[in-house]
Design goal:
The complex is a heterodimer of chains A (316) and B (147). Chain A has 316 residues and is an alpha/beta fold. Chain A is built from 13 helices and 8 strands. A 5-stranded mixed beta sheet of chain A has the order 2-1-3-4-8. Chain A has a 3-stranded antiparallel beta sheet with strand order 5-6-7. In chain A, strand 1 (23-29) and strand 2 form a beta hairpin. The mean pLDDT of chain A is 93. Chain B is an alpha/beta fold and 147 residues long. Helices cover 37% and strands 16% of the residues of chain B. Chain B has 4 helices and 4 strands. Chain B has helices at residues 20-29, 51-59, 80-97, 115-132, and strands at 11-16, 38-43, 64-69, 105-109. In chain B, strands 2-1-3-4 form a 4-stranded parallel beta sheet, sandwiched between helices. In chain B, helix 1 links the parallel strand 1 and strand 2 (38-43). Chain B starts with 10 loop residues before the first strand and ends in a 15-residue tail after the last helix. The model of chain B has no long low-confidence stretch (mean pLDDT 93). The A-B interface holds A 184, 187-188, 192-199, 225, 231, 233-235, 237-242, 244-245, 248-249, 251-252, 255-256, 277, 280-281, 284-285, 288-289, 302-303, 306-308, 310-316 and B 51-52, 55-56, 59, 72-73, 79, 82-83, 85-102, 105-109, 121, 137-140, 144-146.
Chain lengths: 316, 147
């Protein structure tokens, strides 16, 4: 067991036995390798099941919203920003929230590991510092963490939690080293026709399972626009226009609030890189409004405020 | 498919009822001619326009979408158009980014007295959209749907 997991169990056990919180939201080992399951520990004994690996790729902020009473949440940089957003949107009271801050070295992408080992069955993954070792029945291969990290973690800008009550480890370097704008350059440097072609090709496989929506802590409408029938904003088919419209609108609903946690991409059963869209919106919010989502409890989302000097570039 | 000669674009315009809609009204009173290819939807404020409306129009086959509101600072509700400006700027850039033709979108500020500006913008926009031809991207049609 790694130091992070040990420390998280310690903190969770203490919080639960002191009755400082009613529940601790974290992860426990999944039933298959390279998976971690979101888990809510409610007793000190259950706290022993908590774990922390590179496969804790969900978004616990989403889980925390629905929990009654006082709740502690294990949160990396991105998740802590989501928690800030949730507190700001009055979906969780600050006094009911304890943040167990987890400085993050980047989460792992199971698909990348599988690709590296050529699709052979992986039975376990060990993480030691910068080395990630995948083991199977007849092989053992070690990779650099940077080669099997999730895309979103490569371009991470805030790896340390912005809101912390309990500390799990010393802070790590603040960025993942990458530049978030590089994701959008892939499309931006192309001509419009090629961009639309890339857009359709990227999202063609979408089966409209809405996993990306359901995992996202920013979504909070009682009835999602895709489920509405009067008016029916878009069809419920897998036809190209419906799929593309769904992804455009889903991304736009996150505009100015997305913390680039990458849970949508990790949750997608087809591996669709929907961050191509959210990254554009966040990049624009940074460039045009100097805004980065949920960095502190007093900051408002980019689209909830305005300035008389906002750029007029698309208006005539 | 309509031939280029007979093709006329379908343009959906969302006009704020306090300014641009009034400008369209004034254009009528002044007997100003502007293209008939524009279907105006009256909305309470440009700030009330959700990007959903624009996508819905495109999905249903609009060749162009036009949004017009009061000049910044002149909003009847004080700040509606300021919010609209942020929201629509991001949305415009997003649509441009995914390859929707930039010329199919027009965002303007037109005050109730600016009938001539409305006429000018309408003529330019209809010409630009007509030059692009019928919209295909994001449009629900036999071409883009699995049968």
């Amino acid at each position: 067991m790694n130091a992070y997991a040990r420390r998280i169990r310690e903190i969770a056990r203490r919080l639960l036995s002191e009755k400082a919180v009613d529940a601790v939201a974290g992860y426990r080992a999944g039933t298959v390798p390279m998976r971690a399951r979101p888990f809510v520990a409610r007793t000190p004994a259950e706290a022993g099941e908590l774990t922390w690996t590179g496969f804790c790729v969900g978004n616990l902020a989403k889980l925390a919203i629905g929990l009654p009473g006082r709740v502690a949440v294990c949160a990396q940089g991105c998740i802590s920003r989501n928690l800030v957003g949730i507190v700001r949107e009055n979906r969780l009271a600050r006094e009911n929230l304890t943040v167990i801050g987890v400085p993050c070295l980047g989460m792992l992408d199971a698909r990348k590991i599988l690709a590296k080992v050529g699709g052979r069955m992986v039975t376990g993954v060990r993480e030691e510092g910068d080395a990630v070792t995948a083991t199977g029945a007849d092989f053992e291969e070690t990779f650099a963490r940077g080669d099997v990290k999730r895309d979103t973690c490569l371009t991470c800008r805030h790896r340390n939690p912005v809101l912390v009550d309990e500390v799990v480890a010393d802070p790590v370097p603040e960025t993942g080293g990458g530049d978030g704008d590089r994701i959008i350059e892939l499309w931006e440097r192309k001509k419009p026709d090629a961009r639309f072609e890339l857009f359709t090709r990227t999202f063609r496989d979408c089966i409209r399972c809405y996993a990306c929506r359901d995992v996202c802590p920013l979504c909070h409408c009682a009835t999602c626009f895709v489920d509405r029938s009067r008016p029916q904003w878009l069809g419920k088919t897998q036809d190209e226009p419906d799929v593309l419209t769904y992804h455009l609108l889903r991304a736009f609903h996150c505009a100015g609030r997305c913390t680039d946690c990458g849970a949508c991409e990790s949750a997608c059963p087809l591996g669709i890189p929907m961050r191509r869209l959210t990254a554009k919106l966040e990049s624009d919010a940074r460039r045009l409004f100097g805004h980065e989502a949920s960095l502190s409890l007093d900051a408002k989302p980019a689209l909830a405020v305005f300035s008389p000097d906002d750029p007029d570039e698309v208006f005539s | 498919m309509a031939s280029p000669k007979t093709y006329r674009p379908n343009i959906v315009a969302f006009f704020c009822r306090w300014c641009s809609y009034g400008a369209a009204d004034l254009a009528g009173s002044l007997r100003l001619r502007y293209p008939v290819d524009i279907r105006i939807v009256r909305v309470p404020c440009s700030g009330s326009i959700s990007p959903q409306y624009l996508l819905y129009a495109l999905l249903q086959g609009a060749d162009g979408v036009w949004v017009s509101g009061c000049h910044p600072g002149d909003c009847h509700y004080r700040i509606g158009n300021m919010h609209a400006r942020r929201r629509l700027t991001l949305f415009h850039n997003l649509l441009d980014y995914v390859g929707i033709e930039r010329a199919r979108l027009l965002f303007t500020w037109i005050a109730a007295s600016e009938a001539h500006k409305l006429q000018r913008e309408a003529e330019a926009f209809v010409t630009a959209v007509a030059a692009l031809g019928p919209a295909r991207r994001l449009v629900k049609s036999l071409e883009t749907c699995i049968l």
